[in-house]
Amino acid sequence: MKKNIPWIISRRSVLIAALVDFLICTFLYNFIYQYEFEASPNQLVTNTLAFFWIIVSYILGRYEKTRKISFVNISKIFIKSIFLLFLCNFIYLFINWGYPLLFLWNDVIIFNTDLKELGNFFIRSSIYIVIVSTIFQFNFGIINKNIYDQKKDWVFYGTNKKYREIMRETLINRGEIIFWLSNKNNLKSIDINNFQGIIIEDFLLINQQNIDQIFKLKLKGIIIEDLLNWFEKKFHRVPTSLIENKYQLLEKLKSTENNYQIRVKRIGDLLISFLILFLTLPISILISLCIYLEDGGPIIYSQIRTGYKGKKIRIYKFRSMIKNAERTGAQWSNKEDKRITNVGKIIRATRLDELPQIISVIRGQMSLIGPRPERPEIEERLLKTIPYYKFRNILKPGISGWAQVNYPYGSSVDDTKNKLSYDIYYINHISFLLDILILFKTIKTVFNARLNKQNN
Question: Residue 157 is inside which H or E element, if any?
Answer without folding.
Answer: strand 154-158
